[in-house]
Amino acid sequence: MNNKLFIVCPFSCVENKLKRKYGSNSFFISSPGGVIPYNDHLFIEVLKDEIIRNNINSIYFVNDASSRIINAVILNQDLFGLGAEYLVERIYANSFSKSLKGRTNQYQQFRLAELVAQNQKIEFLTNEVFTDLVIDRKIVVKTLVLSSSMRLLKESNIASLVKVTYEL
């Protein structure tokens, strides 16, 4: 059975949409903004244990383009102090704001959601706790961005950083 784990924001309410699309063998772990708190060792252990216990074959980092965090950053609103907010703000400031000036709000939301999900995928694949697990279990790691207003669900087509290892 191909069990899928979706890492989602608890405020996005996308679980039912994902179950309809990907089936009942879908599992969910939530964290604000869909951002894994790597400094929370308990969260990391629970995540690792769930991947093993549920025999996960695919992991999706999910972001919703209408996320409150994404909108607060784009609209330069006050943040609540969550770590995910500061990550999104940093991504926006470093690689996003200048390139998308003049674009529609809808487009900016979707593009920022993609960048945040891609960032999470890279962080996960390069984290020492999960790298061996991904390689040993041949887990596929993808990003997924949803936009209700655009009626769009987009899976990443960016290749994983961790592909194959060879023993010497």
Describe it.
The protein is of the alpha/beta class and 168 residues long. The protein has a five-stranded mixed β-sheet with strand order 2-1-3-4-5, with helices on both faces. Strand 4 and strand 5 (152-155) form a beta hairpin. The protein is built from six helices and five strands; from the N terminus they run E-H-E-H-E-H-H-H-H-E-E.
Present the secondary structure layout.
Blueprint: E1 3-8, H1 15-22, E2 26-30, H2 41-53, E3 56-64, H3 68-74, H4 83-95, H5 105-125, H6 128-137, E4 140-147, E5 152-155
Parallel strand pairs: 1-2, 1-3, 3-4
Antiparallel strand pairs: 4-5
* DSSP helical segment count: 6
Please provide the count of β strands: 5
Shape: globular
Q: Could you tell me the mean pLDDT?
A: 85
* Secondary-structure element string: EHEHEHHHHEE
Largest β-sheet summary: 5 strands, mixed
The neighbouring-strand order within the major sheet is 2-1-3-4-5
Helix content: 40-55%
Strand proportion: 15-25%
Structural class: alpha/beta
- N-C termini distance: 32 Å
Looking at how many chains there are and whether they match, the oligomeric state comes to single chain
Task: Kindly list the characteristics that best describe this protein.
168 residues; alpha/beta; 6 helices; 5 strands
Give the gist of this structure.
This protein has 168 residues and is an alpha/beta fold.
